[in-house]
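Here's my example:
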Amino acid sequence: MSRPHRLLTVFVCFLLVCTALFAQEKTETGSKYKPREQNLLIDIPLTIAEVMAINIFGNVYWRLWGPDSEAAYFTLDSIRHNLNPKSWHWEVGLGGDTFLVNQLFHPFAGGIYFASARSNNFNFYLSMLSPFLGSVVWETFAENEMPAVNDLISTAASGIIVGEILHRIFLELDKGGIAGRIGASIVSPTDRITAALRGYGPEEGPNKINRSSLALGASWINAWFFETGDENLTWNRPSVFLDFNLVYDDPFRAHSKTPFDQFDLNVSLALAIPQIYNLNFISDGYLASWIMADDEVNRASNGITLNFDFYVADRGFMDLNNGRENVSFTATSLDYSIKWRRIINNSLEFSLKSHLGFSPWAVASYNGGETKDDYNLFSFGGNLKLFFELQQIKEAGAKKNGHAFGLDFCFYSTLDTPRSPGFDNNTFFFSSKIAYAFPLTGRLSLYAADHFLFLRCIPIRDAAEIFPDITRWYNSAQFGIKVSL
């Protein structure tokens, strides 16, 4: 594994561990800080300066470690050419970037832009301008290649969700003393920079992280990539996994018109040698929510949520493999959601979180079959997500966690986006997960889970005569420990 890949792996693991360990620490500070009050004469120029600094840092990094570093050496001619709107295009093939770069690193960069605006006192909706500005500047000034419309959409749209989550986690971790502040700085570096420049300190008030957990251990992965050529490709090998889950505020009592006053986040990572990885980022946040029921038996909220879901299983992180062996899908969605908890009896409670809505931006990678061509499939459609859990209710003074059983289903069905390149297609993606936690102590449980991904791309109309269908699935059986916080 090369140095950049090792650094990326360590960063992801450290981020998950820091967030889990320090989420519940209490503020221990007597320092006085400046209040976070809007002052547009400072807020606007500082946000723009931070966005420009992010792009400069990204350009330097890409020159030093980027797999296609020549793209970072922009010139006056390339800038002049990229400023012409006619030069903007859709990426037909996967080109020089992997699915991970285009569909997760771009939203992450958009999230950093967004968090910069949020840290400088802009509200959620005004902060949307920041990732758009950052992406346009990057595409036109920081690369010598033609700007990609799909990169702009992924950065500006998905970055809104990632950025708000990063910003809010930063505010909670920042209350946790030295260790918490280190974790907060890693989660959202632009929040830390703004706080240092403007003299901001930890936010007052109780910690809003309702629940968080970290599971880790060994797993066994299987995958099958059906081809229409001579053979089908398979994976069958041991691996290790991390699974981090965070619930921000009470999902069943959410009642607010402030975006992301309540959200859910799950990040999971599996690694195998030779280098194979599976990374999933599943999130939803209420844009506005209302209470449906709140009594001793039932608690329920409903409202409109913004969702960003990313799934990829592939070889190598950034080595431009773009090979036959991968399962890659992502969607940014606007859903109607219901989050319901019911007390079944004195020792058991049931919860259901359901999401149904529209996915205006979904992307899958098509790269297989007889043609062996690489394509980004830009599409839109609908989604249905269901998250069930049976949880043993802990008695007062109990020394153990309760037993926990979870079952998740996420289904997406999309059609190609009009005027995008590629071919006419229907894309179906399905994710399921079953998990069980057996309590050992008050915070530690044995953990067993199985995670399954399924992707099917079906060319239609004229494309069906040229491109074959592709069907792929990935499965990870996991066993380890789970730390509840």
